[in-house]
Amino acid sequence: MSRLKDYMVPFITRQQIKKIVMSLAKQIESDYEGQEIVLICPLKGSVLFLADLMRFLTIPLQVDFVHLVSKGSIQILKDITTNIEGKHVLIVEEIIDSGRKLTFLKKRLQASNPKSVKVITFIDKPARREIAVNPDYVGTVVEDRFLIGYGLDSEEVGRNYPDIYILNN
Ligand code: IMP
Ligand code: MG
């Protein structure tokens, strides 16, 4: 019997991940200097990236979580409870694929009249885009590959892996 491990090819190491996160944090620190931000983390895949990113940020921030599921249409399993009116909002994604979830979330947040809504993603997969949506900060761009690790899962397997792998099938 074959196991998932037999199909995993190392792609981004934890050391590389740390460097990318630190460089993203630097950009955010300088762009939002003197401002407060609200980080919005869509569950569940983004939790590792969020935790790493917020550790490197020294600007005042709040954090909240939203859980969306797409079963045909996109539904909200858990909404944010933070009042974002007049605030700078930064959506923290681990990966942008079709862009459907992000487009839905952006619209939804914009309806609460924040001062701004920007998007940071650790990984961007523009080749898979179905809806035009551009992240403001991108850790790294990948081709059309299925990845696991660092929050990314294959049916819940791999989320906790500290490194990122390509999953070949
Ligand atoms: P989309 O941009 O609306 O298609 O949604 C992106 C979501 O699809 C992410 O939050 C992941 O849950 C999932 N996803 C997309 N690409 C990958 C991948 O390479 N590995 C694991 N999950 C992925
Ligand atoms: Mg998933």
Could you please describe the fold and organization of this structure?
This protein is α/β, with parallel strands linked by helices. Helix content is 23%, strand content 34%. The chain has three helices and nine strands, in the order E-H-E-H-E-E-E-H-E-E-E-E. Strands 4-3-2-5-6-7 form a six-stranded mixed β-sheet, with helices on both faces. The chain has a three-stranded antiparallel β-sheet with strand order 1-9-8. Strand 2 (37-43), helix 2 (47-56) and strand 3 (61-71) form a beta-alpha-beta unit. The site of inosinic acid has 14 residues, from strand 5, helix 3 and strand 8.
Describe the structure concisely:
By secondary structure, this protein is α/β, with parallel strands linked by helices.
Number of extended strands: 9
The radius of gyration computed from the alpha-carbon positions, rounded to a whole number of angstroms, is: 16 Å
What ligands can be seen in this structure? inosinic acid, magnesium ion
Distance between the termini: 14 Å
Structural class: alpha/beta
Poorly predicted runs of 5 or more residues: none
Provide the residue-averaged pLDDT.
96
Judging from the principal axes of the Cα atoms, what is the shape? globular
Residues in helices, as a percent range: 10-25%
Helix-strand string: EHEHEEEHEEEE
Q: In what range is the share of β-strand residues?
A: 25-35%
Tell me the strand order in the biggest sheet: 4-3-2-5-6-7
Q: How many helices in DSSP terms? A: 3
Largest sheet: 6 strands, mixed
